[in-house]
Amino acid sequence: MSVRPLEDRILVKPLEPETKTSSGIFLPESAKEKPMQGKVVAAGPGKLLDNGQRTKPSVKKGDTVVFGKYAGTEIEIKNVTHLIIRESELLGLVEG
After folding, report:
1. pLDDT tens for residues 37-76?
2. Structural domain harbouring 51
3. Partner of 68 at 20 to 30 A CA spacing, among 49, 74, 81, 84?
4. What is the distance between the alpha carbons of residues 57 and 45, in angstroms, rounded to a whole number?
5. What is the CATH number of the domain that holds 45?
6. 37-43/9-14 β-pairing
């Protein structure tokens, strides 16, 4: 099964939460926060404007993005959790 996002939506695979702190302390499951970064798996064709043109998405497959804690809709693809997020809900692009 594959999912192709429509319009200005982006399919993101959230990055795994950290399992230990920078000082080496392992975190229990209850202390882990929901990830707010992920890899772009696919991007839709872009938002359709009133004049019939489409805006080009500002992210592409493989980019690492930052999104809000409760942004998007969770879906499961081949037993892996993904998010479908509108491009406007993305907070930033991780570079470098």
Report:
1. 999 999 999 988 899 898 999 999 999 999 988 889 999 9
2. 9-18+25-94
3. 49
4. 7
5. 2.30.33.40
6. antiparallel
